[in-house]
């Protein structure tokens, strides 16, 4: 098997974008639990994200959701983030929390509502101009609950039109990523339910449009790593929303429910050029911490990605190729599983120390007093929305 030393330098490229909403209170439709120390402002969410980066070295950017993270002056927010040691990342548009969007946003039958949804996305690009963000992420809650409710074909055409207007407004270095989800909040049909629909739209738009793959947005049993391989092959895997799930869109800590699936996904990411210099694929978290503390939850998440990426890099691809060429099914599987079963935690602790990071970021954070300080200082946190 490949040695840790042989892959150590490749780990320097790892950057996991964290979502601002992970630091706010969230919950299920049954209850949102408050938690001490919850950020009251966008700045406090960014400060918490910056703490995750300080202790791990893995999370240099933070994604914003508009209007959850609306501020008067995004230039000032960018400067604040810079001071904290992080940059502002993906801007997520939000056309799912306004009464006007009850029957759809970019796919609404009423052209005035469609225009409103387009205008919101254009306003998000204005935000990107100020924050220096590269990516606009669009996820639509659009869909219907009952057969016959909507013209599913016309809605695709309206969607294509709206996306075109938004796409044409992107600056030279800006990109659009279109996220798909197979159900929820709509239960009969969803307008962007799968990677194929997202791919059809983004490839019609042009080279600056990509698919966003949220790992929680597939039917149980879906082979997600196959989708990863295919989208990388097609040059359209723009980003991941990482999280893990047992049942639906659970938004639990990535790698918690099925570490082996995360490994399989990251093997295909590495195999397909989705990691490292020149990669077009952004690795992001899209999670909520409903019952656990949020900053440690985020620390655990980025460490899980680092651990599984390391194991994926350890895969002996030369030996694997040889076994495959020989048609040796069991040997190929054994080589693959060897990489997955390798415990890299001790090696990673040494890797961190060599880079001036705490060997154990979680323990270092817990000992730092940061959590106590925010719990004492912040009273009355905001709700951050939900996934
Ligand atoms: C939808 C989703 C999408 C939203 C986020 C809050 O389920 O995954 O990415 O922006 O949750
Ligand atoms: Mn998502
Ligand atoms: Mn989701």
From TrEMBL:
Signal peptide: none
GO MF annotations, alphabetized: L-rhamnose isomerase activity; metal ion binding
Enzyme class: isomerase
EC number: 5.3.1.14
UniProt keyword annotations, A-Z: Isomerase, Manganese, Metal-binding
BP GO annotations: L-lyxose metabolic process; rhamnose catabolic process
Gene3D superfamilies according to UniProt: Divalent-metal-dependent TIM barrel enzymes
SUPFAM superfamilies per UniProt: Xylose isomerase-like (SSF51658)
Keyword Transmembrane assigned: no
Protein name: L-rhamnose isomerase
Gene it is expressed from: rhaI
């Amino acid at each position: 098997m490949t040695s840790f030393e042989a892959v150590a330098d490749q780990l320097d490229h790892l950057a996991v974008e964290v979502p601002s909403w992970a630091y706010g209170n969230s919950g299920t439709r049954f209850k949102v639990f408050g938690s001490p120390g919850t950020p009251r402002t966008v700045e406090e969410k960014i400060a918490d994200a910056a703490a995750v980066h300080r202790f791990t070295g893995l999370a240099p950017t933070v994604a914003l959701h508009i209007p959850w993270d609306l501020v008067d002056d995004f230039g000032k927010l960018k400067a604040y983030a810079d001071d904290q040691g992080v940059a502002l990342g993906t801007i997520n548009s939000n056309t799912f929390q306004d009464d006007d969007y009850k029957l759809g946003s970019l796919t609404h039958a009423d052209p005035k509502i469609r225009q409103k949804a387009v205008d919101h996305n254009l306003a998000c690009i204005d935000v990107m101009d100020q924050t220096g963000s590269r990516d606009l992420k669009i996820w639509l809650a659009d869909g219907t609950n009952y057969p016959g409710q909507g013209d599913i074909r016309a809605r695709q055409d309206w969607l294509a039109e709206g996306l075109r207007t938004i796409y044409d407004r992107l600056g030279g270095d800006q990109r659009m990523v279109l996220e798909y989800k197979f159900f929820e909040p709509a239960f009969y049909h969803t307008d962007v339910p799968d990677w194929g629909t997202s791919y059809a739209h983004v490839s019609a738009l042009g080279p600056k449009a990509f698919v966003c793959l949220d790992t929680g947005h597939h039917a149980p049993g879906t082979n997600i790593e196959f989708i990863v391989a295919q989208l990388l092959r097609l040059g359209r895997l723009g980003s991941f929303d990482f999280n893990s799930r047992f049942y639906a869109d659970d938004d639990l800590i990535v790698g918690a429910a099925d570490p082996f699936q995360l490994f399989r996904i990251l093997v295909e990411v590495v195999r397909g050029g989705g990691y490292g210099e020149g990669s077009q694929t952004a690795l992001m978290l899209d999670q909520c911490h409903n019952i656990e503390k949020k900053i440690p939850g985020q620390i655990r998440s980025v460490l899980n990605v680092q651990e599984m990426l390391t194991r994926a890099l350890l895969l002996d691809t030369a030996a694997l190729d040889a076994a495959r060429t020989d048609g040796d099914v069991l040997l190929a599987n054994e080589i693959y599983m060897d990489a997955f079963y390798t415990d890299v935690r001790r090696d990673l602790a040494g890797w961190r120390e060599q880079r001036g990071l705490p060997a154990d970021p979680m323990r270092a954070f817990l000992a730092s007093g940061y959590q106590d300080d925010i719990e004492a200082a912040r009273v009355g946190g905001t709700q951050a929305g939900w996934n």
